[in-house]
Amino acid sequence: METFTYDANGNELTWVDKLQENGQWVNSDSFTFTYDARGDELTYLLELSESGQWTDFSCDTSTYDANGHLLTHLYGVWQNGQWTDQESDTYTYDAKGNKSTVLLESWEGHWVDSLNYSYTYGSNENELTWLIQQWQNGQWANYERDTLAYDANGNLTLYLHERWSGSSWTPSVGSGLFDHPYVDVNGNFFDYEGYEVTFTYALITAVQPGKSNLPGSFSLEQNYPNPFNPTTTIKYQLAMNSNVTLKVYDVLGREVETLVNERQSAGSHNLTFNASNLPSGVYLYRLQAGTFTQVKKMILMK
């Protein structure tokens, strides 16, 4: 069971998950959000219910510029009685407000560069290039890039994905490092796979009513059964093709298993998690699909 609260502007303030145990609803996990005056999310706190008490698990903190552009995003976990940094993202923008760079750093006792994303745009603000570089041996090294082209009306006509190989760019299917759905200046939405995709357009004069079987949004379901021993099923829905990770953590925030780490198609997915090699206790499973993230709690009872 899930319950929500909202502020006067419709912003979600709390989200509490409850599970059935011994015929009654008991707290499982809680999400708490704060916002600035514009409604931009400032903090996101995840707490777990342990022995009837809420305990901290993870926290996201964001900052913005005067125009509401995201500047920094910091992810931390609660370990050994204190908050420990895990990952930091820093954003920059051009004079028109288009995202120019995103720097990803990981905490290893100090901040260490990890990935850098950079973008260029045309005069009509359509994205022209998208470059990923990795920090290697004290310098940035090319990893992947996208190149896009458009017709006179600003519609996307060509998408080319390449990977750096040796000393040159080679056409390649995406690595799964980052999901890259795309919306052009005309509002056309694209989510593509492959290393070279061309687009053509035609005028639609009639539409036959129909029903899509694809989910309308991303979601992560509660595992079943729960509590479980030693296997349980985890289901989730993807609204579009996405680079997906699904990981299991213990209550101290330590990763114990990676269940999914690949690009998957839009639709409903499910898998069986076998915890025969783990001790009884509470575990978290975390789904990340593109920019969507959701966490659920499960109980292994042997």
Notes on the structure:
With 302 residues, the chain is mostly beta strands. The chain has strands at 2-6, 12-21, 24-35, 41-50, 53-64, 70-79, 82-93, 99-107, 111-121, 127-136, 139-150, 156-165, 168-171, 182-183, 189-190, 196-198, 219-220, 231-238, 242-250, 255-264, 267-274, 281-289, 292-300. Strands 1, 2, 3, 4, 5, 6, 7, 8, 9, 10, 11, 12, 13 and 16 form a 14-stranded antiparallel beta sheet that branches. A 4-stranded antiparallel beta sheet has the order 20-19-22-23, with no helix packed on it. Strands 17-18-21 form a 3-stranded antiparallel beta sheet, with no helix packed on it. Strand 14 and strand 15 form a beta hairpin. The chain is globular, with a radius of gyration of 22 Å. Residues 175-180 have low confidence and may be disordered.
List keywords for this structure.
single chain; mainly beta; 302 residues
- Sketch the topology as an H/E string, one letter per element: EEEEEEEEEEEEEEEEEEEEEEE
Query: How helical, in percent, are the residues?
Result: under 10%
Q: Shape, please?
A: globular
Sheet bearing the most strands, described? 14 strands, antiparallel
Task: Please give the alpha-carbon distance between the first and last residues.
Answer: 24 Å
**Count of separate DSSP helical elements:** 0
Mean pLDDT, to the nearest integer, reads 85
Strand content: over 45%
Low-confidence stretches: 175-180
Question: How many beta-strand runs?
Answer: 23
Structural class designation: mainly beta
Radius of gyration from CA coordinates = 22 Å
